[in-house]
Amino acid sequence: EPAQDNLSVDMMHILKDYAINPYESMSEKGERMNYDLATLTRHVNLLREGKYLEPIDVSMGKGSGIVKLFKLTEKSIKIVGKQNLVGRGSIIHGFWMHKIKDYYMGKNFKAEIEWYAKSQNGLVDLAVFSSDGKKKIAVEIALSNKFGHEVENIGKCIQAGFEEVISCAPSQNILNGIKKEALNKLKNLNKVQFKLLREYYTG
Hey, which end of the chain has fewer CB within 10 Å, N or C? Predict the structure, then answer.
């Protein structure tokens, strides 16, 4: 039986919120839930000690700090249900898809996570469409140095008819590796841009 009696009202409230809103920073969550950062941190630390939350650090890139996310443990899932995660990848991959979607929606674009490219029988991390439907942008998120795989994804996006393909990574090293591989494998990089993920993070 889940040990719910160990959890205070505040801890339960925060745990449920991490199930529903997994991609907020501590300061964003505190602000929305009306907790000052010290109080929220105290409750979160108790949840960590009780093995209800597992910390996941998202690096903003060299010298740009980290955003701390928390993943629900099996123990928590039994109490509050599964976490509301997007996509098939890791919580970090989902965090960036979520943030990039918010970024484009804030600029009046429509954005769809894991959009199905029928002609390629594959998924695009993020498909972005202008409100008049005239502009189509594909965004691919690369978190590791599997450069060949990332270049295949870029090629698929070009073949699926996107006017612009943006390859994003957390570090310049990964971006350089993808760019080098892309120059070797793809004939035309006119449609391709390379960006650091932190360009999409507004805090």
Answer: N
| Locus of tokens 């698929």 | 156
Q: How many CA atoms lie within 13 A of 80 on its CB side?
A: 21
DSSP 79-148: HH------SSS-HHHHHHHHHHHHHHHTTTEEEEEEEEEGGGTEEEEEEEEETTS--EEEEEE--SS-HH
Mean pLDDT by 10 residues, the chain (203 residues): 69 96 94 96 96 93 84 95 88 94 94 88 92 90 91 93 95 94 90 94 71
State the Cα angle at 153 between 68 and 86, rounded to 5°.
35
Residue 126 pairs in a beta bridge with: 113, 139
Three-class DSSP category at 48: helix
Let me know the angle formed at the C-alpha of 74 by 68 and 77, rounded to the nearest 5 degrees. 85
pTM: 0.88
CB 128 within 8 A of CB 104: yes
Whether residue 101 contacts residue 115, with contact meaning beta carbons closer than 8 Å, is answered with no
